DNA sequence: ACCATTTGACCTAT
DNA sequence: ATAGGTCAAATGGT
């Protein structure tokens, strides 16, 4: 349907705008370029706003209406985190430094790339229920949408704060593991890394020590961005998109 | 031999 | 009926 195409295009636009923004940020580009980039971002913003508010329910976007309004969704409340990772390198597998085991892959309707399913390696040995899904963003093979759900109960916290020293340990993002306050909540976040040299890494954390997010090394540029095909809140996306200085932005919703 | 990945089948929700 | 998610046998690498 055309809504799908619209959403896809918007996602592409946002992705490209962010990519551009990162480029502009990383290399001290001329002021003109920055300005242009800002204008572009604003334009994309307006388009997204129009699309989202016109009653045009953008597929895959949660326009306020709880898609899973049934009690089933309530009972199945799980933590869920979305991360968008941009790899400027290429299609190298996302490596967040944590032990995941791939257990499936599916072609997703309307998506050019299949979705891969991973679970924690220690699922059986430690009963860790954490899983993640990785899918290439439509239109931009360098963008990966990574969705984590479930709490890591395994103490893979052996994996230290990898963000601090990327070359030693891949970065890991914090999660609310062991944080009871967050267990009933859904956390969406986009994380965007753009670094020409570093290998693509999804900064997830298998078993983060706290619910806070780690500081990111300068070599990574993070920007909030479009949650493509998932129930991202549009306004939140915009806020994040319009605040590139916020390296991180997370929102919490209940399913 | 062990472990991870691949991939078609199967299950479940819509 | 269809799509998304998971299982598990087959396969390959170390």
UniProtKB/TrEMBL annotation:
Disordered as annotated region, ranges: 52-80, 165-184
Keywords, comma-separated and alphabetical: DNA-binding, Nucleus, Transcription, Transcription regulation
One Pfam short name: WRKY
Amino acid composition bias (Polar residues), ranges on this chain: 166-182
InterPro entries per record: WRKY_dom, WRKY_dom_sf, WRKY_plant
One GO term of the biological process aspect: response to salicylic acid
Low complexity composition bias: residue spans: 67-77
Cell compartments where the protein resides: Nucleus
GO cellular component: nucleus
Gene3D superfamilies the record matches: WRKY domain
GO molecular function: DNA-binding transcription factor activity; sequence-specific DNA binding
WRKY domain residues: 89-152
Cited PANTHER family: WRKY TRANSCRIPTION FACTOR 21-RELATED
Family the entry assigns: Belongs to the WRKY group III family.
Protein name: WRKY domain-containing protein
Organism: Lolium multiflorum
